[in-house]
Amino acid sequence: MKHSIRRGLLGAAAAATAITLAACSTPADNGGGTDGDFEPMTSVSLQLQWLPQAQFAGYYVALDQGYFEEEGFDDVEIIPSGGDIVPQTALIDGDVDFAIAWVPKVLGDLEATGAELTNIAQVFQKSGTLQVSWADSGIESVADFEGKRIGSWGFGNEWEIFAAMAEEGLDSTTVSITTQDFSMNALLDGDVDAAQAMTYNEWAQVLEVVNPETGELYQPEDFNVISYEDTAGAMLQDAIWADTARLADDPAYADAAVRFLKAVIKGWVFARDNPEQAATIVYDAATNAEAAFPVGPVHQLWMMNEVNKLIWAGGGFGLIDSAAWDKTVQGALAAKNQDGIELITTEPLDTAYSNDYIQQALDALEADGVVVDGAYTPIDVELTEGGQ
Q1: In a shared domain, residues 108 and 186
Q2: CA 219, 222, 226, 227: dihedral to nearest 10 degrees?
Q3: Listed residues 213, 230, 247: the one ending a domain
Q4: How far from chain centre, in Å, is Cα 236?
Q5: How far apart are CA 22 and CA 135, in angstroms?
Q6: Residue 154 — left, alpha, or beta (φ > 0 → left; ψ -120 to 50 → alpha)?
Q7: Which helix (H) or strand (E) holds 254?
Q8: Average pLDDT, 10 consecutive residues per value, the chain (388 residues)
Q9: Are strands 2-9 and 15-22 parallel, antiparallel or unpaired?
């Protein structure tokens, strides 16, 4: 087995790395998801929605530990994005076989384009989005957003903000949505009143900065933190998407989807049970990429710890909870941005999600003796300056 690296130029950010597994192997007898005569797929590609980091640990671990190979794949490509590649668009265009993307972003694109994609595994069971402000800002809830400069990365990441405001009956035109970069500099520099952050990334970034007044790292009590998971604006985030028509019409693709999910599940189980090792695997992948931010090993361990909390939330791995799906859809229907633009105006098709493929993968793993169920016990991660 050998690993090869394909480098491609990214817009704005820089270049990232697509990692490929190339090995001499034959398709495994793995209890795939379909019946009938077909030639099993041995090559598969996955489009990530961002750069290499522990948010995507399960996929890199599956590559590193040979889990894809065990499921009959001898060529697996994991393709990062630095913001220049929209995962669902790459999937719609047929450039990749599967993609990782937030549910509301995909729903918006499906309505806008008329394309059909299917969520075949809901990896993150909870929202990890926060809005972070200074402790003396007076912003303690979504109700305090009116008249404030609310930071967001854009690119569809802002819809939880507007869904939460809609539930509060707030006029979205009363906030100034200020585009921030993928750091907490906008908050630190006073360019926004409340910055968007993920529990596993930007929240750690601000806690990795030295407070000039104390000479020590900033502490959580220096900030007010609003978690969208605690609001009606919470939406489902990282999910694995597949091409709906291919699933229905191509038995080899449907079979590959189940085998792919089996490998991914094993990768995430490994990351749950071995967070330190999984973080190291991703750190190595990130440091071998031309663009990965931030890549500090302590930061990656923090991220691994927090991501596990979002994944292992008490339900079955990857199963789409209908109540959480309906909440996401209702939030998407209610959300209207500061320009009066709606995310979606009608409910998505029934084919927008399916538990069939993830359930087949879980059943096959159980038959193989792989224990998937299990809670995650968080570890203590002591942050350091810059996450190094």
Answers
A1: no
A2: 0
A3: 230
A4: 9
A5: 51
A6: left
A7: helix 251-273
A8: 30 40 40 67 97 97 98 96 90 98 97 97 98 97 95 92 94 90 94 97 97 97 98 96 98 98 98 98 86 81 98 92 96 93 96 98 96 93 96
A9: antiparallel
Provide the whole-model pTM.
Answer: 0.91
The pLDDT of residue 287 is 86
Hey, what amino acid is at 10? L
Cα gap 163→177, rounded to integer Å = 14
- Quickly tell me which residue has 């968080």 as its tokens: 378
- For the record, the structure tokens of 345 come out as 């105006």
φ and ψ of 179, to 5 deg? -70, 125
For residue 163, give both structure tokens: 């869904």
Nearest to 307 by CA among 58, 78, 46: 58
Q: Verify cis geometry, omega within 30 degrees of 0, for the bond prior to 87.
A: no
Place of tokens 């090995």: 23
Phi, psi of 382 (to 5 degrees): -95, 110
The angle at the Cα of 250, spanning 244 to 253, to the nearest 5 degrees, equals 80
pLDDT of residue 292: 64
258 and 212 belong to one structural domain? no
CATH number of the domain to which 373 belongs: 3.40.190.10
189 and 239 both lie in a single domain = no
Residue 369 φ/ψ region, left for φ over 0, alpha for ψ in the -120 to 50 degree band, beta for the rest: left
- Token pair in block for residue 328: 């996401």
pLDDT of residue 288: 80
pLDDT at 290: 65
Residues 188, 194, 197, 202, Cα dihedral to 10°: 10
Helix (H, G, I), strand (E, B) or coil at 251: helix
Q: How far is residue 84's CA from residue 42's CA, in Å, rounded to a whole number?
A: 28
Q: What is the reported pLDDT for 35?
A: 55
369: its two tokens: 């003796």
What pLDDT, on a 0 to 100 scale, did the predictor assign at position 4? 27
Residue whose entry in the numeric block shows the structure tokens 């087949």: 360
